[in-house]
Structure formats: C-alpha cells, structure tokens
Amino acid sequence: MPATTSSCSWPPAWTWLLLNFFLFLPKIPSSHVPPIVPTCRDKCGNLTIKYPFGSDFGCGHPDFARYIKCTSGELRFSSGTGIYSVSSIDYTTATLVLTDLFMSTCSSMQNSGSFRLDRGNPFTLSSQDTFILLGCSRTSPVFDPNEDLCDTGSGLHLCRGMYSCEGVTGIGLEPNAPVSSCCVYQPVIDFGSGYWLDLPKLQCSSYVSMYGFGGDETDPMKWQFGISLEYNNSYYTDTCKSCEASGGFCGFAGLTQSFSCICRGGGNSTTNCFGRGYAWSGTWRHKIQTKISFGGILLLWVVLLL
Ligand SMILES: *[C@@H]1O[C@H](CO)[C@@H](O)[C@H](O)[C@H]1NC(C)=O
Ligand SMILES: *[C@@H]1O[C@H](CO)[C@@H](O)[C@H](O)[C@H]1NC(C)=O
Ligand SMILES: *[C@@H]1O[C@H](CO)[C@@H](O)[C@H](O)[C@H]1NC(C)=O
Are residues 208 and 162 in contact, defined by beta-carbon separation less than 8 angstroms? Predict the structure, then answer.
C-alpha cells in the first residue's frame, strides 16, 4: 500500500515543478543577446534628437552622421577646424547653435582658433549670425580700404559693446579701449560655398559670433553668443515618415548606406516596423510568454496522460 500512495502522490509534485519551470522560462527570451543592429535614442544628453540627426551610428541620415555625433551625452559637430558642441536645435526653423569653447563672449575673451564650414555639407551659416573680430593688427587685411570687409556703420556699436566687457582683458586690452582693432566682419559669401574665418590670415586674435541680442542691444552680457547654422531640411522622404509612424527611427545600413528603419524593440527593416511584432507597444514579449505558457500546459497534459 505505501507504494501505491507514493505513486499516487508523484503527479502533483511534477505538476508543481513543471508549472514553476514554465512560469520562469518566459523570462529567458527577453534577456537573449540582441541582434547586431544599431539602436537609436530620442535624446543626446538634454537635446531631443530627430531626423536627419541621429543619436548613434546608423541613425539619422548619413550626410549628417559625418558631421554630427553624440559622444558622452554631448552632441558634437566636427568641421575642418575642430569639434564644437551643439547647444540647441530648432527643428521648426531647421537651425542649430554651436558653441566654440575658444570663441570670445562678453564674460570671457581669449585667443580663438579659426572657424571653417566646409563647402558641400548640408549646413550653412544663418543669416542672423554676426562675426566680430577682436584684437586685429593695424596691418590686417580686414582694414584694407579697398575691400570693405568691416561694417564701419552700425557695426561700431557692437565693437563698443564688446570692448566695454570686462572679459576684454583676456585678450590684453583695457575695458573701453579704442575700437580701432575691432571689425564686424561681413565678407561676401556665396550660398553653399562654405565659410572660412581664418584668424592667422586675418591677423586677429579672437572672434565672437552672435545670433541675437537677447532682447537688449545695449547690454552685451545678454547677447546670444554662438554660431547659428541652418541645415538642409529636404532629407525627409515618405519612406522615413512611414518608418517614424510605425515607431521606428530612420537610419542607414550597409556599405551603400541605404535607408534602414530601425525598430525600437530591436531589429531593422528596409521599410517600417509595422507587423514586426515589436512596434512600440512592447506587446511582443507578452505574445512569446503566452505561447510558451500555452506550450507548457500542453506538455503538462502529455506528461499527465502518460
Ligand atoms: C541639462 O540641462 C540642465 C538644466 O538646463 C543643465 O543643468 C545640465 O547641465 C544639462 N545637462 C547636459 C548634459 O547638458
Ligand atoms: C538639400 O538636400 C537635397 C536632398 O539631399 C538636395 O537634393 C539639395 O540639393 C540640397 N540643397 C542644397 C541647397 O544643398
Ligand atoms: C539591418 O542592420 C544590419 C546591421 O547594421 C545590416 O547589415 C542590414 O543590412 C540591415 N538590414 C536592413 C533591412 O536594413
């Protein structure tokens, strides 16, 4: 009789074990090794990242990925003259603002490097940018009377404003020094031809770039310092819009850098993320869990029947 009792008691023990096994199993698929497909994020540090920019390699448009990268939570723009941090992006006006650490502002002036925008890239200077050259030598080509490169009219009040800043001592001048070594630079620029502020050639020690007065033209501490760039906003295609509508990120893949829609749950597609089971609701994991639990109950039945 004891033998019968024990043989009668084994199915419940097995059932319990099996149930546990299948209850814990569903956690395995969610921790499997992800496929080697780029992942894209909505943010880089504090900045919202949208097409044509990308947070990671393979995200955004390849023409932009060459110049803009997210490194250690900072969006950086590289040009022939250096790497600048992107402090803001306005997607409605297709403009972004760069900060050059060596550029002068009212609070801090120092010797700057040059600034160059290569020709043929998808960026151009915004029309509201004003470049002010500081500490230029008397023999500087900007003062060539035949060239007319400096705004000597209304530009003079910008020079006076900058030379009234305490930071001016950083370039070896006294506050309110004569503005004869300052130039509000306005060379003729052809659209798409690039831009090069070559300080050694211009014989100036520093430059200031500003894109607005911050509401007060008389207070240079409030002026908006930075280099504002416009970007070519005609990269959006219907394929990319459809990819975004399915919760994916527009990106690129392969040697030809062809369009690739990168899905949030993982994986990529040449079109969009619809019907791939892992659009953004995240329900795909539940589906797998249900399938496995269902399979488990079936197996349990088979075992019990045996
Ligand atoms: C994010 O923004 C906050 C507040 O504007 C600022 O204090 C912080 O330094 C920023 N962080 C980065 C990584 O830019
Ligand atoms: C902007 O980009 C589009 C698409 O790549 C290109 O056809 C067009 O020539 C570009 N426009 C300018 C002004 O560079
Ligand atoms: C998906 O990404 C991989 C890795 O980047 C790439 O090799 C592949 O071509 C991509 N496939 C599609 C359909 O974009």
Answer: yes
Query: What is the atom index within ligand 1 of the atom nearest the CA of 45?
Result: 13
Q: For residues 262 and 49, what is the distance between their CA atoms, to the nearest angstrom?
A: 14
For a mutational test of ligand 1's pocket, the pick from 46, 49, 88, i.e. the residue with the most ligand atoms closer than 8 A to its C-beta, is 46
Q: Would the CA dihedral through 165, 170, 175, 181 be positive or negative?
A: negative
Which residues, including other chains, have CB under 8 Å from residue 6's CB and lie 6 or more apart?
Answer: none
Q: Is the CB of 46 under 6 A from ligand 1?
A: yes
Answer whether residue 281 shows pLDDT above 60: no
pLDDT digits 0-9 by tens, 77-92: 999 889 999 999 999 9
Supply 209's token pair: 């770039």
For 137-195, write each residue's pLDDT tens digit: 999 999 998 888 999 888 899 999 999 999 999 999 988 889 999 999 987 776 666 78
**Domain boundary assignment for the chain:** 2-33+279-305, 93-231
Angle made by CA atoms 147, 151, 155, in degrees to the nearest 5: 165
Map residue 212 onto helix, strand or coil.
strand
